[in-house]
What we know:
Elements: E1 8-9, E2 16-17, E3 23-25, E4 31-36, E5 40-41, E6 44-45, H1 52-65, H2 70-82, H3 85-88, H4 91-94
Antiparallel strand pairs: 1-2, 3-4, 5-6
Helix pairs in contact: 1-2
Amino acid sequence: MTKEFPTFVCQSCAKLVRHPSEVGTDARGQRDGSYCRRCYGNGRFIEPRLTLEEMTKRVADDLRTRGMSTYTAGAELAETIAGLERWRDRDSARKTSRDIPTQKTPQLVISRKSDRR
C-alpha cells in the first residue's frame, strides 16, 4: 500500500506543493512541511531579506506568464500572501486591503411590476 503525499500550500509563496521533492528542508535535511524548496532549505529561507512586496510581485509575474489576468494576479494575491505564516507577523504584512476603509456601494433593489401595486 502506497502512502499518498499530503499536498499543502507553501507558507511563503502560496505555491501548491504536490510532491515530496518540492518540499523545503529543515537544518537536518528533513522535509519541513510548511514551505516549498524554492523558499526554504536547510532550516532557513533561501532569500531571508525578500520583502512581502517583492514576493507578491514575483508570484504575480509567474502567474501572468501562465496566463492569469493582471488584475487577478495582483489584487487577490497580495492579500493571500500577506496572510501566510512567513509574512503574517511582519510589519509590511500587517496592513492588508481588509484594513483600508472602503466606500460602501449602494444596494441595488430590483422589484417586479407586480410588487409595486
